[in-house]
Amino acid sequence: MKWTCLTMVFVTAGLFASAQNPTVQGAEAGNGQLSVNISVVGGQAFTIADSFFDEAEKFERSGDYDNAVAAYNRAAKEYQEDKKYARYGATLIKLSNAHLVLSNYAEAEKIVLKQVLKNYTRIGSKSGQMAAYQQLGKIYLAANKLPQSLWFYTQHGILAQQLNDKSAYIESVIGIASVKIKKKDYLLASKDLNNAELLSKNANIVKYNQLIKSNRAIIAEKTTKRKA
Question: What span, in angstroms and rounded, lies between the C-alpha atoms of 38 and 140?
């Protein structure tokens, strides 16, 4: 009875409408990261798993990542039991990202390597694998494992090109630039940001303009300090 009432409330309110846009990072804290918004919306009836997912997103929006982790865990288990493997994988990426925010790098990495990639390989989802590679790029960047981060952002970009996903490819280029900023390869990072800007302009995509600008500001700040 409890879940029936809860479901009615959620359905009436028209909740649970996220859109997929896996996060690409900034080079450092405060760089303005893109948020992870994995879509798990379909034409099916709202389920217990959906209610757990919705609850997790509410915790996430309020900054309560510990409770978000618990709720994403419950949602993932329910989706797996329901054999909704696309939603299961998407929820695991959200779970990994919540661990990342909490600086639980080892746990965030394990979820993607041992669960997400295995799941998307099994169902043959290249877009899912691409999102997993991007998530690993973020994790390794945050953990300061720069060669690994660069490799996964590169793989992310390769899949984006194969899928002709222009937005994802731009995100991979910005991700690679962020790795180079951390490596203090400012000239190469600037070239990548110029490339990302050109790609965005040609594709008429403006949503990355601020992120590109933020990364350039970091380069300017770092190079100014080095000259001083």
Answer: 20
Q: Which two tokens stand for residue 160?
A: 């984006």
Please name the residue that has the structure tokens 């409770």.
67
- What was the pLDDT predicted at 224? 86
- Cα separation, 177 vs 190, in Å, equals 7
Residue 222, classified by CB atoms within 10 Å of its CB into exposed (0-12), middle (13-18) or buried (19+), is middle
Q: Which among 111, 93, 99, 117 is positioned nearest to 37, based on CA atoms? A: 93
Question: What DSSP string runs through 3-18?
Answer: HHHHHHHHHHHT----
pLDDT tens-digit map of 96-133: 999 999 999 999 999 999 999 999 999 999 999 999 99
The length of the chain is 228
* Cα–Cα–Cα angle for 130, 136, 139, rounded to 5 degrees: 145
Token output for 145: 């494992």
Dmax of the chain from CA atoms?
Answer: 67
